[in-house]
Each structure stands twice: as structure tokens, then as C-alpha cells.
Amino acid sequence: MRHDSPTAGVPVLEIRGLTVTLPPGADRRYAIEEVSLTVGAGEIVCIVGESGSGKSVTAFTVMGLAPRKELKPVAGEVLLHGRDILGLPERELRRLRGEKMAMIFQEPMTALSPVMKVGDQIAEVLEIHTELGPRERRERVLAAMRDVNLPEPERLFHSYPHQLSGGQRQRVMIAMALVLDPALLIADEPTTALDVTTQAQILELVKSIQRRHGMGVMFITHDFGVVAEIADRVVVMREGRVVEQGPAEQVLGRPRHPYTRMLIDSVPSLTPPERPTREDAEPALEVRRLNKVYGHSGWFGGGRVVHAAKDVDLTVRRGETLGVVGESGSGKSTVARCIVRLVDITSGEVLIDGIDLAKLREGALRPYRRLVQIVFQDPYRSLNPRRTVGQSIIEGPMNFGLSRREALERAARLLEVVGLSADALDRFPHQFSGGQRQRICIARALAMEPQILIADEAVSALDVSVQAQVLDLLDEVRRRFDLAMLFITHDLRVAAQICDRIMVMWHGQVVEQGPTARVFREPAHEYTRRLLAAAPGRHAFGAERREAGDHV
Q1: 18 pairs with which residues across the strands?
Q2: Could you tell me the pTM of the whole model?
Q3: Is 218 helix (H, G, I), strand (E, B) or coil?
Q4: Hey, do 1-100+183-264 and 266-371+450-457+491-552 end up sharing a CATH topology, with the first three levels equal?
């Protein structure tokens, strides 16, 4: 956490009593109400709160990107270097965007054009806002790419977004935002989808660039670990209002508002509780020497081959949770998809009840598909928007012979188990929050009465308080149904609190595994030590904050 004082003088950004209306029929009248905050030069202000708190509406209103027919400012001021920009015409706002203020979005794959080379996309900003010629634009773009530590800028200049890693795409977005040296940078959840080491690199990059350029930064996040790493000041929002703000040390260490305390208490500790071993329990899933190779030879013997999983061995016992951790590209999700047979393995065994699923053809495999169910990361894309919740839950059991009446009765019971009422059966996914949708996905998986539940980054997109509730739910259904759970995550805090054992993957290989408490306390492999060292806020939210195990 930084301790240096922000530059004195007129704030880069000052928001005074900003109120923005929601469309008629919304769950409340205002998206944000009487919001006031400042961002000084050389200062990082983190805005935190759950989904629907108004964080992003505040940022998009400042940038002039909020749809004014749906989100209409009706009171207040937005001052950029003392000038009220709230009522400016679109042409003037477009000029200010890039020259004076810029924004980094959460998902670079949707923010970048897939059909333009990344160098051209950065150069387009210069073409719109400057009189530079093609050669000068190219040199400025390459300098910006070097500034954000992109490797081989000359090569990446001619690459398309899909040819870059997630961290590299986010660096391109940062380079695009900073190429005109704006006074205000707004970052909207820019590290949420990144693994822990890439996240640490991006956070350090934002801090170093902010120091060099003296910018004011408004950083929107729901991750208090990120807040602890970079914030000078913190603004806490709830249901459109600011409920608390102040220096980071005060808000994190001595929160005044109950809502702030609840959010902080929901942050999982990095210190795992001691959990009883289940070595005497029957193995529900065994994977032996699993290999998955992607790629093929070219016309002349070339071609790219990727060994996504190399000789992976794992065992998950009934009633046990095995956590699989590692960076993007480590092979975690590949192993999960091989187990579920969403992809065919290259070699190895996947054993359930002594039957090798890897060798079964689709017809013979069908009875075993019921035994392994998976909950994916994004509940918004996991449910068919045109089907009611009931239709989504009963489809699987009815395909395996259950009558409609029995399937609906089971669905109603399971909705109660996951904390929703049975009347949710007749509603559609868009009528639920993200956390509620993930509960529905869990109920759908349980409706198949599986032996093994795979959670593939199932809580990484959720707010910290909703995440805590879903983790508690997963732990409860594991105990209640004696499930074997394979829990895939890049969030070491989550893994610390829910997993009995941990398996660390790197470049497709298992480099370390063992009881969670032992691996976190005494990591044997250098890569495991690097992962633990990169966890944001590891000092602010460790064992000294509260007793280990309070969360789950």
C-alpha cells in the first residue's frame, strides 16, 4: 500500500452530488444518488461495492459513455480540472476522452476489435486526436507498448487480439488509454478475469505508470486484496450511495459503516484452516497419466503442438474437495474438460467405479455422464435465456428417465437447498442476480444426483459477499450429498478456505500437491511460492486479521 501524499492543488476529478435516474420499472429510482468524491493528481482512489452499487454507472457517467436515455443525470456536477463536463455536447466529450481522460475496461476481448491489429487500434487514437503522420504515430505506439512492458513491441504491433494472452491484451488496453498522456485514468475491474501473477503484474504496472505520469486514477473493483495493494483512498458504495470514504488505512483497518465491515469480513483469509483428512474414504474419481495434446503437423512437417496436460495424476475421494490452482494456460480447465469428456484425451485413464471413461464410446459413456457434473465460471452464459429455471433444471433428469412430475419435485427441493424458493421455477434467468444464477446452476448440477461435482472458476466473477455465500453453499452440498468436488480456481484465498487438498499446475504438469494447510504453510515448489507471493493484499487480509476458518 502506498503512503505518499497526493499532489496538492485542484483535483483532477471532482464529483459533487451526482444523481442519475434509472428507467421506469427498475428496482429503485436512482442508479446513483448524491455521489460526491474527488481524485487528485498522483492519487489512486478505489471505488468498491457489490454489483448494482453504482460503481460502473459513476465511471461511465464521468466518461460520458452511459446511455442517456436509460441513465439520465438529473443533479450534480462532474468537474474535470475544475470544469463541469456533465452537460457538454458529445463532440466535445469525444475530444476530452483520450486527451484528458481515458478508461480501461474489464474484458479486453470485447473492448478490442477482433479484425484489427493491436498496433493499428492504438494508432487510431492518435489519428483521431493528433496531427501526427503515420511514421510518428507508429513510433508513439511502439513507445507506449514498451511503457506497459509488452514483449517484442514490433512483432506484437502486427498481432491480432486473439493471438495475445489475457495479460498482454490488458496491457494493450492500458497502452491505448495512456498513449495521449491523460490526466485521469478510470479502470473498471481491469484485473478481475486475470490469474494471480498476471494480476500482480498489471497492478504494479498501473502504480508505476501512475507515478511516472502523475495521473489521477479511479480504480473500480470488488476485490479488497487489490484495494489493499494500490489504494491511497477508498470510496465504498451501496445501492447507489456513498456510505463511507477515507484513507485506505482507515477504511480497511478501522471501517465505520456496517456494510464496509461486512464486505471486509467476507474476504477469505489466505491462512487455511486445518481440515480432517479423508484418506480412508472411497475414491470417487481417479485420473492416471492423463495427456492432452492439441495441434497437428503442417504440410511440410511443421505446425504448432501444445501439450496442454502432461501425465496428470489425481484422486478425489467421496466428501473431499481437491483444489486445482495455477495461472491461465496451466492446464486446469483442460483436465476438467477431459474428465467430463467435453474433449477427448490423448492418452491416460479417467476411472469412476473402476470404469475407464476415456475408453468408452458415446453410447456406452452416456450412463456415466450423469455421475460427473460441472458448474462453469459465467452463470450468465450457462443458462438458456429463453428457458425458465424449471425447464433448465428438469431437462437432464428427464433425459435419464425421470417423469416430469418427479423432476419438478426434485427441482423444487434443490432450489430450497441452494437458498431459493420454489417459485423461481417459473421465472427466467434475467430475473435473477449473478449470485442467484450461480445457485441455479448448482441446483441444475445436483439434479443429476452426481458423485463428482467440478466447479470451474465458479465464484471468480462474483462479488466478495456473494462469493462467500456460494462458497458456503458448495461446502454445504459437498457434506450433505457426500460429493467429491474438483474445485478449479486462480484465487488462492478461495482455495485456502474450501479445499481439503491442493494440486498446483504449471505448463500442463502437476508440480506440487498435498493437504492445503501444508502446501500454503510450506510450499515445496518455487512456482507455488511465486503464486502465494503474488496474492494481492496478502498482508492486509492474513491470519492477523481474524481467526483462520471463520469464512467457511
Answers
A1: 35
A2: 0.79
A3: strand
A4: yes
